From TrEMBL:
Organism: Luteibacter yeojuensis
Source domain of life: Bacteria
Protein name listed in UniProt: ABC transporter domain-containing protein
SMART domains attached to this UniProt entry: AAA
Record InterPro entries: AAA+_ATPase, ABC_transporter-like_ATP-bd, P-loop_NTPase
GO-annotated molecular function: ATP binding; ATP hydrolysis activity
Keyword field: ATP-binding, Nucleotide-binding
Domain ABC transporter: 8-214
Keyword ATP-binding: yes
Amino acid sequence: MQYSIRRVHCECMGTGLHIESLRGPHVGPLSFAVARGECIAVMGASGAGKTQLLRLVADLDPGEGRASLDGVPRDAIPAPAWRHKVMFVPAVSGWWAATVAEHFDEAVRDDALSLCTAMRLPAGIMARDLTGLSTGERQRLALVRAIVRKPGVLLLDEPTSGLDAETAEAVEACLGELRASHGVAMVWVTHDASQAARVAGKVYRIIGGALVPA
Ligand SMILES: Nc1ncnc2c1ncn2[C@@H]1O[C@H](COP(=O)(O)OP(=O)(O)OP(=O)(O)O)[C@@H](O)[C@H]1O
């Protein structure tokens, strides 16, 4: 565990993600909640701390504060399991094998293929080498890779920044379906105010390290 989380107070308990007094080197203290099936958008100037916020929530960087998912405190869940349930999808994802298919277990390939189609990825992409893919294709594949692992929360760092408007719309629809059908909660970082208004029930800005309703 990288940040010290004491047992959450009763007001932190409940369905979804609850964050209280989260603090890192450049942000905080921040408190917010995202219900199952809800999306909040986080905007803010470059360098304001949006990525840091997501990484703190995923417990990928050292920080302080309290967190719970569906009423279960962070300190009751082993760190790798927390990061699986509360999954960070970075703006630029890492890849470790030569082909796309090697990044997906056999058991999730069908789900992955359906998602690829929904996100307008080209047919046959599973057989392709990573080196030949565009930035936008990698970005969507990173989302597919995260979704098939069935997280309860997705922490999305500018998930459509490399995409044209039409493809971004397909990704937004796909993620909307995931919220509606599977109750996934999302924290969506974006620089696009129109997108924030489309996808999120609440929009915040990080200003001076604080989370302010936009
Ligand atoms: N590994 C690091 N070491 C030191 N400082 C860092 C590190 N990573 C980020 N920072 C600093 O933390 C602050 C917040 O960075 P962060 O990446 O969270 O910004 P952001 O709001 O996501 O910006 P952008 O919109 O440009 O992606 C910045 O001042 C950045 O320089």
